[in-house]
Amino acid sequence: xxxxxxxxxxxxxxxxxxxxxxxxxxxxxxxxxxxxxxxxxxxxxxxxxxxxxxxxxxxxxxxxxxxxxxxxxxxx
Length: 76
Known about the structure:
By secondary structure, the protein is mainly beta. The protein contains no helices and six strands.
């Protein structure tokens, strides 16, 4: 079973780059976070994992959009 291709990502339609190495290719993964102050103690988050350095960027909202690397970012 192969790994999915790395994708470009935008946050609120703004191109996103890795905060460590500045690469613009990521793998997306849903991760479970243990938190206090909720009924279940669990919340889901979206992780963008840098395809170069592996740094994990966590997001708690739905502002992330992924784009095929060969297609580039959307216009507009």
